[in-house]
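Dear colleagues,

As part of the handover before I leave the project, I'm documenting each prediction I ran so the next person doesn't have to rerun anything. This entry is a single chain, and its sequence is reproduced below.
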Amino acid sequence: FFSIQTMEPLMTPGPGAIEGLALALGKTLGVVAIGYVMGSAGFCDPAAGKGLNQFLSWVAFPAFVFHGLATMDLSRLSWSVYSAILVSKIVPMVAMIAIVFCFSSACMSDRWKMAGILGMFVTMTNDVAIGLPIVQAVYPEFTSYLYLPQQHVLFNPVALIFLEVGATCESAGAGTLIEQLEDSSTTPRRVTPTWVKLLRNILTNH
């Protein structure tokens, strides 16, 4: 981060940042290597792995993020820094969606689904598992920004909408999504309109 007038860095890494960075990378890569070896050697059976995944996904990670958000000092939050984080995710996602729709030779339903999947992939940067140790070692004052759930609140829902639109187009057969939405307004009351199905699938993640 630089000042426009002086072009001097506003923040510099703390003392021992290089050593801390090397230690953080070593710990992170070491944990990944241990997990890979245990999985490849069969030390952890699929049932245990499934239980660990459920615990991490539904208990440990949400509690970790909630604690980070609850203890965050919002008065020290820099919206310029947060805006830069959002832009760094929005630009790749928009670019990937544009590339898929402009250059893909797949059918329209597959384009929607490809855009959703690839758009999610380019924004999921694993900020907590890998980014948090690195930022804590180099710029500890910026660690609070990694707890902000912009991925799950903004980008993942957009990707899921693209996936659901693609699935709806695929189930339409010969008709397009726009035709389905228009036809749904004239369907009998006992038939669920297409736009209602689409919204329900997005909200229930089906």
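Residues 1-10 have pLDDT under 50 and may be disordered. The chain is about 70% helix and 0% strand.

All the best with the project,
I.
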